[in-house]
Amino acid sequence: TLEWTRDRFAQLGFATTDSQANFVLVDLRRDAQPFRDACKAEGIAVGRAFPPLATHVRISIGTPREMERAMAQFTRILASA
């Protein structure tokens, strides 16, 4: 599921960190707070800010079903920004 998530963000044009953990950092190339706020409004919790990485969000990896749902929301949110 980690690789699936990294691949989906790459397809959208966003770089992710190489991770061996249960999360990945995604570089949104813009202030990440509006993305976090939009995700929260959709019921998806996204990790806290990581100064000085103000353009990055931490995405924890869930089950395949959870990640499919979250990725659909992420895609919609990123397209509307």
Give an overview of the whole structure.
This protein is of the alpha+beta class and 81 residues long. The chain contains three helices and two strands, in the order αβαβα. It has a two-stranded antiparallel sheet with strand order 1-2. The chain starts with a helix and ends with a helix. The mean pLDDT is 93.
Strand content: 5-15%
Order of helices and strands, N to C? HEHEH
State the separation between the terminal residues, measured CA to CA. Answer: 26 Å
Shape: globular
Which bin fits the share of residues in helices? Answer: 40-55%
Tell me the total number of β-strands: 2
Residue windows where pLDDT falls under 50 for at least 5 positions:
none
How many alpha or pi helices? 3
- Mean pLDDT across every amino acid position: 93
Widest sheet, order of strands: 1-2
Radius of gyration: 11 Å
What kind of sheet is the major sheet? 2 strands, antiparallel
Q: Which class do the helix and strand fractions yield?
A: alpha+beta
Can you give keywords for this protein?
12% strand; two-stranded antiparallel ribbon; alpha+beta; single chain; 3 helices; 81 residues
Fold topology:
Elements: H1 2-11, E1 23-27, H2 33-41, E2 56-60, H3 64-80
Antiparallel strand pairs: 1-2
Offer a quick outline of the entry.
The chain is α+β, with helices and mostly antiparallel strands and 81 residues long. The chain contains three helices and two strands.
